[in-house]
Design goal:
The complex is a heterodimer of chains A (about 350) and B (about 130). Chain A is an alpha/beta fold and about 350 residues long. Chain A has helices at about 20-25, 30-35, 50-65, 90-95, 115-125, 200-220, 240-245, 250-255, 260-265, 270-280, 310-315, 320-325, 335-340, and strands at about 5-10, 15, 40-45, 70-80, 105-110, 135-140, 155-165, 170-180, 185, 195, 230-235, 290, 295-305, 330. Chain A has two domains: about 5-170 and about 320-340, Thiolase/Chalcone synthase (Peroxisomal Thiolase, Chain A, domain 1); about 170-305, 3-Layer(aba) Sandwich (Peroxisomal Thiolase, Chain A, domain 1), CATH 3.40.47. In chain A, a hairpin with an 8-residue loop joins strand 9 (about 185) and strand 10. Classes of the chains: A alpha/beta (about 350), B mainly beta (about 130).
Chain lengths: ~350, ~130
Amino acid sequence: MAGLVGYGAYVPRKRIRTEEIARQWGKNPETIKRGLLLQEKSVPGFDEDTITISVAAGRAALTRAGIDPQKVGALYIGSESHPYAVKPSGTVTAEALGIGPEVHIADFEFACKAGTEAMFVALGLVEAGRVEYAMGIGADTSQGAPDDALEFSASAGGAAFIFGADDLIAEVIEAYSYTSDTPDFWRREGEFYPRHGGRFTGEPAYFKHVLAASRGILEKTGLKAEDFAYAVFHMPNGKFPMSAGKQLGFKIEQLETGWVVPTMGNTYSGSSPTGLAAILDVAKPNDLILITSFGSGAGSDSFVLKATKRLPKVQGLAPTVRSMLDGPRHYVTYGEYAKFREKMIVNE
Amino acid sequence: MPSPRYTREIPSRYRLEAGRCKGCDKVAYPARRVCPSCRGKEIQMVNLTPKGKVVTSTVIHVPPDDFLMEAPYAMAIVETPEGARLMTQVVDCEPSTVLPGMDVSLEFRLIRKEGKGGILCYGHKAVPVF
């Protein structure tokens, strides 16, 4: 059976508080915090992008896996903020990780589920026996237009997962995908910020796909919500994943470990993968884990994983998600945030 | 920096590849064809441990054009456990707090952009270990 042999995550150290963004636009921070359940979010520095986040997460995953990087036969990065329009993020990442040149590389894009797309394909190649190890990464430095609700959530971070067939830290019991053409959120070629359909992003988009994919994989595996130790759903804000989890019969104790959005924000393609990494940081052998992503456009990928006896041995080999969220942080003002996110026009 | 030169330097910039002299054990970063210590020519490639200590540092207030938005920022000479020294920015901290003896880790970061439409140049920067 194929599964995970290593995982790693990275969250930048810069943060901006919900109050600071609300103050800039004359909004009531308590209303935002209560409505979206967001306290603060990570902010990438000038020198952090999808590639640097992928390298940091990938290095942690290789450390935990303890494998020769040369044996990684495929590397896929899912993101909606690849630094180049033409030139893969994967080539830079592979060189930095010591992977290749005998490696298959591609960049994936499917709004916020590009990360689990990369994982889905990496898993398939290992299951097919095409490669010994394959790495799937979800990472983003998310865009949100000034004074848009997205600005309170769009953040930076990501997670990397190495799939293999031996010495697993978690078996992948099943994978499932659910997709339809739903224009809830998009960014046209050349546009700097994405646009969204407001409330249309909720029931017809997020909830329809997340619930369908989760119910589909539960039916396929014959498992029920109470069989799982943990579940994580894509986190566009704090409210949606909790609501989806409750509708599927999960309790708050099963959801809160992977619910990293209140202090991390929505890392788009890195959102549910980073939540999964936070769960793997503490999961025990035989724990069942459900992850369901969501990408606008729209679709969801679901995976059911089962932790093995090897997982506790590798958890401490690299920084945990919680240590990065609760560790050293540097809070920035809205002005600094606008500078770091290059939201200001300056002379060349 | 022209793209061909940047490409040639990828092993040292991306993976911290250095050269260890088989004669005197001196580690030079980036690797040299001739050992700067004993003039030996037998060099073994090694990857530096991505951590070290600040040997000396300064704060840049008037930077080159590519780094204008980042000023003020700290620059330091960092020595790795292998004894190799490299000049690097120290980031994710107040520049004035970077002092000799500070423990740092070396993280993969974007160093500079070749203008608005040019290539992106990556390498390592130091980050304080708390």
